[in-house]
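Allow me, if you will, to draw on your knowledge of protein folds for a short while. A protein sequence and the structure tokens that stand for its backbone fold form the material at issue. I would ask you to consider whether the tokens describe a fold that such a sequence might reasonably adopt. Thank you for your consideration; the sequence and its tokens are set out here:
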Amino acid sequence: MKIRLGQLFIVSLLLHLAVVLAFGHYKHPVLWENGMIADNIYGGRGFSANFSLPIEPTSWQAPGYPYMITASWLLFGQGPAAYLFISVVQCLLLASMIWPMTALSRRWFPTIPILVVQVLTVLGPLYLWYGTRIHHTAFVMALYPWVLWGWLECVQKGRWQAFLVGAGTGLFALLQPVILGAFGIIGLVLLGQAVRKRYWEKVILLLIAGLAVLMTLTPWTIRNYQVHGRLLLIKSSFGKEFWMGNNPNATGTGYALGGAEEITNVYPPKCFEFRGKVSEIKLMNAMQQEATAWIKTNPRKFLSLTAHKIIWFWTLPPKDRVRSTGDAEALLFRGVYMTYWVALIALAITGCALRRPSSEYLWILALYIFFYSTVYGLTHVGQARFRGEIEFLFLPAAASGIFLILRGLSTRWFSASK
């Protein structure tokens, strides 16, 4: 019997909802910085925070998720109903991944049965886990394959489709700005290919998509200029993340040894003596300058630490360098996640080695490996969600590996039974 995508979507949605209800995080969620900013918006204090000055206009976080939390509070009040509503929306988006994952798998591994990648998508441990968290991670994981599929296929279908892909990318960036670098490179590569082959209609469509991205981001960039007095596309927090990964006491993660406290609390940067006296943007800039100065005087330590961070990004950092407080999922699920990740990579390598995928898949995979290694090699690692954002890229290759292994085993079994 042929299983339809709508049926798989319902199964996936019910599974995600069951996990949300089982963990019950929505009853007493941890909201982190997104929640603090949302509380200020909800209380009439605007998009503000207290990273330095009390209740000052902020760009510490991207605006998408704080406004989403605020909207849920306006609908349901500041309680479990609001957080359950957000969790349901996250489950809907995560379940919807089967559509773009199906399309991408057909595009990259056309001879592999799509049911295999669909099952992997439905049962992905990180997708199930982060659907329970009140954090923008679930949105980022769910939207990534949709937007990538849009750039590879939907852009060339017409001008409205191109505009929607570009606008969708801009909205996506208002949840997770780091995606702009990778999609910017993909857009430029596609544009260069179209110009080289003189596909002028496609050139126009790609330019429309690029313009739509800029149009979507411009209002928030203007707001940032008005409140900070400088050009800032979306977020101001790079200086903080850069310092956390590059300072005299840096561990490679965001935490001090032992994992009980964030490194900024245990070993605060020197510039924190000005906290409460200067603006957020000035304090972020000072942290970046402090990290840069440390790198210049400790180039070997910087290179060694960066190499370790890249290795840990694609594996796991030592136990004493990840968060050990709160839910401490980095420790609680360490064995499960490592087993799953090793199996996924082994299957993906097998799938690529035995059934060569399209060249497009290989260069996109290489791009993301390089791009994310660079971003987190320069900042800090240690949270599964960082790599989890792009884990979907490995699923089609892993599905290929699973299919080829099962086919080989079935052939041997059939031959032995004769």
User: Anything to note?
Assistant: Residues 236-308 form one domain. The first strand starts at residue 48 and ends at 49. The chain has a mean pLDDT of 93. Residues 135 and 229 are 29 Å apart (CA to CA).
